[in-house]
Amino acid sequence: MKTNKLLKLTIFCFVLAIGATFTSCGDEDCNGAVWYADTDNDGLGDPNVSKTSCDQPDGYVANNDDDSDFLGPINSKFLIGAEVGEEGYFLTTDNLTSGAISIVGNGNEGYANLSASVDGFFYYLNSNEGTLDKMEFTTEGLVKRDAISTTALLPGSFYRYIQDTGNGDLFLSNFPNENGDAPFAIIDLATFTVEKHGFFNMPDVDGKKALWANGLVKDDKIYFGSYYGNLDRTGLAQSLITIKFDYPSITNPVVLKNDASAGNNAGYRTNGAFKTENGDIYQYNLNSVHWYGHDELAAKPTVFVRIKDGDYDDYVFDISSKFTDPIAIWNAWYVGNNIVYANVVREADITQWRDLSGNNGTLVEINLETKTVVELNIPKATYVNIFSLNCVENGSFYIPVNVTGGDANIYKITIGGGANAFEKGAALDGNNVFVNSLHRNF
């Protein structure tokens, strides 16, 4: 009997040991797998939101490759501003790729073309009220939180440009007056207060006046692309000229010159310069025979040049040489990895340059590293109407295509994909719609 009891006890312990062994093996096989939230159902996980589980939770995937999973309020991922029937509207949406988006009656009234979207807030120069408005993205839509009177800062005039510097502030500016004095304001984003405002002076260069200026902040410097000539818009400078100042003091001007071409390297509605990931600054020049109604610089090419380590280097990319007839770049947008999308207008297609809604351009893909240009097989459109465009997500660039007298759609372009790497996305209200701003907010 003692032997049987001992045998039973031995068998019981053996069975327990086997069960414990199997349980332990199961835990080791699971090994605490990490799953990442895929809130926009694109198959890519958000590296900032994860769960540890042996089984895949609903709404989670095994990779963490998504840099854009929607983390903001619902229906606020993108913002679209447009002019419809000579009235301005803007609204938010989570979908740019399908269906139809009606702005009229569904969004805010006002022109949001001069705007910036930063850290969950939307800032725009409200031309109707003469203010810089701060609006927050919420589940109830855009809610106005504060405003600064730009009319009080700049009596009798306005700010033409607004820039998120990346240094925690907004930089507002306009082009210079006949004395070379240009207005500016620096807005601290943390407190939404005016940190500094007034005028800075663009110095005369070779006896010529600064007719245009638009700045780009990099570290503790600001680089103003420019356009120099006589006050009557004759005798234009035969070089590209940039004025570098200390920032944010905007003092100690230094003249940088590049003889690769001439014309306006400040940009027209978009900035004529941008920073790449390694800190280099690239500029293009607007050198149109229609600019100010003369052709003094007609023989000068459209180019990209580079500012490296605080000055121009020997980089030159002659865009004009890629076309058989004269062209001008009126807008350009940097999307990363040395890729630029530019609005190229053939000079022969312009009947009257001030009729911007009638001047249709071609969207081209420019690789600054390989020095190649590819025309996209997208309809010609009034890309010059776009003031603010900052909409890149997961290797795609979104841009409004407003066909004069035709349809308006958002197009999704695969960055660096070539002539046919795009898809036609959401349709807008219909004819006579000109999208002037498009932001990815979250």
Structure, described:
The chain is mainly β and 442 residues long. The protein has a domain at 74-105 and 319-442. The protein is 7% helix and 45% strand. The protein has two helices and 32 strands. It has a five-stranded mixed beta sheet with strand order 6-5-4-32-27, with no helix packed on it. It has a four-stranded antiparallel beta sheet with strand order 7-8-9-10. A four-stranded antiparallel beta sheet has the order 11-12-13-14, with no helix packed on it. The longest helix is centred in the first third of the chain and has 29 residues, at 2-30. The model is unreliable at 1-28 (pLDDT under 50).
Number of helices: 2
Structural class: mainly beta
Fraction in beta strands: 35-45%
Q: What is the overall shape?
A: globular
Calculate Rg over CA atoms. Answer: 28 Å
Largest sheet: 5 strands, mixed
The separation of the N and C termini measures 76 Å
* Average predicted local confidence, pLDDT: 89
Question: What layout of secondary structure does this protein have?
Answer:
Blueprint: H1 2-30, E1 34-37, E2 46-52, E3 60-61, E4 78-84, E5 87-93, E6 108-109, E7 115-118, E8 121-126, E9 131-138, E10 141-149, H2 150-153, E11 161-164, E12 169-173, E13 181-188, E14 193-201, E15 209-218, E16 221-229, E17 240-246, E18 251-258, E19 273-275, E20 281-284, E21 303-308, E22 311-318, E23 327-336, E24 339-346, E25 362-367, E26 372-375, E27 388-390, E28 392-393, E29 396-402, E30 408-414, E31 422-427, E32 433-440
Parallel strand pairs: 27-32
Antiparallel strand pairs: 1-2, 1-3, 4-5, 4-32, 5-6, 7-8, 8-9, 9-10, 11-12, 12-13, 13-14, 15-16, 16-17, 17-18, 19-20, 20-21, 21-22, 23-24, 24-25, 25-26, 28-29, 29-30, 30-31
